Amino acid sequence: MRQSLQILTDELRRLKTEGVGVVAVSDEALAALRRVVAGRQERSRQTPPAVAPFPGNVRAPVEGALPAYTPPAASAPAAPVLPTAPVAKLPASPVVPPLAGDKRTRWDALLAQVTGDLTCQANVRPGKKVVLGVGSLDAAIMFVGEAPGAEEEIQGEPFVGPAGQLLTKMIQGMGLRREDVYIGNIMNWRPQMPTVAGREQVGNRPPTEEEMRYCLPYLLAQIEIVDPAVLVALGSTAAQGLLGFRSFKTLGEVRGRWHNFAGKPLMITYHPSYILREPTNRKKRLIWEDLLQVMERVALPISDRQRAYFLER
Ligand code: URA
Q: Does the global pTM surpass 0.90?
């Protein structure tokens, strides 16, 4: 139950950073939550805890890779469990050896390493796939999403589910085909959640800091091989993976502006699932304005019609 609550908290926080203010909860789920909260309140009345001040969100550097995780000093007061606490201990991040040859040869070698990675394999359920990026190895634009979902882990390809179909439409709106760009993820596996024995996982959770740290070398290797002109991070989890964990509170603070990651200009915008949840022209326009900046940066032609997309209310 505690892990499920953790996952729920993570997801609610993520939705909040993406601007979602209201979520629907069934009466049964609400009743279950009330029971848990009532139980907690009862326990805390019985044993007053040694109060540990919440450390707050330490702002990590805004640019660069994930900051190293520093465990609290032994003498420090016990910190509350952060919603991002790793679900399972992962080994040190993999080392991608220098890859030789042309782009395709290097990408194939990377694919072999990622699909043969025992940690990646251990994190996918039987019959499901580890997922590497897809698309043109000569792409000027590389999109970076969060993690594979249900469809992606079946097909072994990023962004093929509902959010992926919307991303493909956005790419087409830019005058490109899906296969003209490169699409990757922060994560190479679908973050697992507890499931009923023998049943499929329902829903998704955002990856933990540790999971993102583990997969980061694979993303960096893809950036090195493809060598795109720009990166586009989709959503707050991807943005945190690139800018630094908890380096911002809301996506609004960082989206629509150019940042830098791995020596590449990085645009941050909303995740397509943000639009799926509330498909208003106002929200579509926000993403579209970010994509117009990307088009300008890579010198794609922009028609008057494209400039005016989603302006009508
Ligand atoms: N959402 C993501 O961030 N990545 C995927 O591959 C699919 C959905």
A: no
Residue 233 beta carbon below 6 angstroms from any ligand 1 atom: no
Strands ordered across the beta sheet of 258-261: 134-135, 182-185, 141-145, 230-234, 264-269, 258-261
Q: pLDDT tens across 224-283, in order?
A: 999 999 999 999 999 999 999 999 999 999 999 999 999 999 999 999 999 999 999 999
- Rounded mean pLDDT, 19-41: 49
pLDDT of residue 312: 75
Q: What is the pLDDT of residue 50?
A: 31
206 lines ligand 1 (CB under 6 A): no
Could you give the CA distance from residue 287 to residue 268 in angstroms, rounded to a whole number?
9
Distance 163 CA to ligand 1 centre (A): 7
What domains can be seen in the chain, in order of their start residue?
A: 2-45 (no CATH), 103-307 (3.40.470.10)
- Compute, in angstroms, the gap from residue 145 CA to the centroid of ligand 1: 5
Vertex 123: Cα angle to 121 and 127 (nearest 5): 65
Instruction: Please tell me if the CB atom of residue 145 comes closer than 6 angstroms to any atom of ligand 1.
Output: yes
Confidence of residue 45 (pLDDT cuts 50, 70, 90): very low
What is the DSSP track for 133-170? -EE-TT-SEEEEES---HHHHHHT-SS-SHHHHHHHHH
Tell me the DSSP string of 241-270.
Answer: HHH-TTS-SSGGGTTTSEEEETTEEEEEE-
